[in-house]
Amino acid sequence: MATVELSHLRKVFDGPARSVTALDDVSFEASGHTFVSIVGPSGCGKSTLLNILAGVEEPTSGRAEIVEGDRRARLGYVFQAPRLLPWRTVIDNMMFVQSTHDQATRERAEHYLEMVGLADTRGAFPGQLSGGMQQRVGIARAFSIEPDALLMDEPFSHLDAITARTLRRELYSMWMATKKTVLFVTHDVFEAVELSNRIIILAKGGTLRRDLTIDLPFPRRPADDKVALMKTEVLRQFEELDLVAS
Amino acid sequence: MYSTLRAPRAPAGSSGLVRLLTSPRAARLTAPLLILVAWQLVAPLIGSRLLPMPIEVVEEVGVLALEGTIWSAFGTSLMRLAVGLGLALLVGAPLGLLLGVSSRAEAFAHDFIVIGLTFPYLIWGILVSMWFGFGDVGPILVVFIAAVPYVMVNTAEGVRDVSRDLLDMARSYNVSRPHVLRHLVIPSLSPFFFAALRYGLANGWKGLVLAEVFAATSGAGWEIAGMRDIGNAAGVVVYALYFATFSILVERLVFGRLSAWVFRWRPRQPGAARATAS
To answer: How many domains does one find in chain B?
Structure first.
């Protein structure tokens, strides 16, 4: 069971003219089969938070890590853009991130490709796929390493509404099937309500302003009254906070 | 006021033949044909001592081919070109990598590269003849000098072009360094590597022929100098033709095919191969 631990996390980017605080004293914990959405306006440090957890960036101070028992957790990362290697086929893109390259690993990769409905495209190059299909490959890639936890950085924001809805449903069933800890960054409050059982709201300047538990049964249909009411409630709280004041 | 856009209509009386004759494919053939006609018309005005008639050149092609010096001359030149270019890649690629990752190295090398790119081959040709006399070393060195700045500049450009996003992706998945180098860095360098090879080859050739005039007693450049000495304009033109043919063959048979294979992942037309389902 993976545990996400953030303790007084702070990140400052030093620019030539002035330094920018991306995250300011952020602390929270999450563990087990949970779906945490991190919501906030642009520039609130959402992506930076994921990058620090993934080890791509270093914190200025404080601590941020995801552990599985007493070791560092294995992480799958889904980005805003698919970030596939254009010169490698779909299946080779999935194999690129694996730590072993035997037959069993390949079969596992193919299994997840099948889960996102793309078994037929294994030999295709990313440039031959639509944006939605590429993003699906990115999702399958993240699941295929059988991670302890998943980091997702606005994975559906570049897609059209219909494709995004389909992918949200697929993500939900994969989350249910695999019981992973998911950290999901979005600027879309409605998307957060549909997917998560916890929503963390960050304000500009990277301060944690709300930590909401979304106590609604799954699966959540967008048109469901309770879901709609919850969306309105969260949006109200969201707007109440003056998130972009500097 | 509004207007309707209509598809342009083919001119009256057009046939498949006309379309074929005006196609880009035909244009590639009409270009040399036109040059040949112009040549045939102009040559008599100048006189064959200075500009031979096309037929004289054709005869000379036969004479030189049968005699055999042209083959050994080109063989020698090609060997020098291959060695010089190979060395330029071997030395230039790692240096280019260094320039790409270190701004200090780039600042250090900047002026040398500018000089390298613009320095006249004539000076190198004369210098190497003074340093190394007549032989293989001088011409090979000039090929190297002519090609190496292009290899360095293009490799450095390629390194700077490697996607930060893809590198971060690889890092977040803990992909090993050798794996990243082999499957991410080198493939994204390949367009630049092709450019390096093309420019290196083109400039290597130019430098080589010049160097052979001054610093060799064999090879195409030296043979051409000999033709000039005996006043055989047709012979010079024949050598020029061989160079032209060689460039086109290398472009079509080697670079064209190699790049089609290396870049087979690129969609042929934007959107053409796109799958419809999402």
So the answer is: 1
Could you list the residue range(s) of the whole structural domain that residue A193 is in?
1-74+183-246
Domain membership flag for residue B154: yes
Nearest to A130 among B183, B265, B278 (CB): B278
At B47-58, the pLDDT tens digits run 767 778 878 888
Any B CB within 8 A of A145 CB? yes
- Best residue of A53, A116, A128 to probe chain B, by most B CBs closer than 10 Å: A128
Domain membership of residue A115 (yes or no) is no
Domain tally, chain A: 1
3-state DSSP assignment of residue B61? helix
Give the chain B residue nearest A132 (alpha carbons). B278
CB contact at 8 A, A193 and A39: no
Q: How far is B192 from chain A (nearest CA, A)?
A: 15
* Long-range CB contact pairs, B107-113, < 8 A, 24+: B109/B152, B113/B149, B113/B152, B113/B153
Residue A243 lies in a domain: yes
Q: Is A128 a member of any domain?
A: no
- Of all residues in chain B, the one with the smallest CA distance to A84 is B166
pLDDT tens digits for B121-171? 888 888 888 898 888 888 999 999 999 999 999 999 998 889 999 999 999
Instruction: Count the Cβ atoms, other than its own, within 10 Å of residue A81.
Output: 17
How many Å apart are CA B224 and CA B218, to the nearest integer?
10
For the domain that residue A33 is a member of, what is the CATH number? 3.40.50.300
- Which residue of chain A is at minimal alpha-carbon distance from B179? A96
Which CATH number fits the domain that encloses residue B175? Answer: 1.10.3720.10
Asked if residue B122 is part of any domain, the answer here is yes
Does the reported pTM lie above 0.90? no
Kindly list the strands in the beta sheet with A181-186, ordered across the sheet, starting from the edge strand earlier in the chain: A75-78, A149-153, A181-186, A35-39, A198-203, A207-213
Q: Which residue of A has its CA nearest to B265?
A: A87
Q: Do A88 and B183 touch (CB under 8 A)?
A: yes
- The interface predicted TM-score (ipTM) is 0.89
In angstroms, what separates the C-alpha of A71 from chain B's closest C-alpha? 15
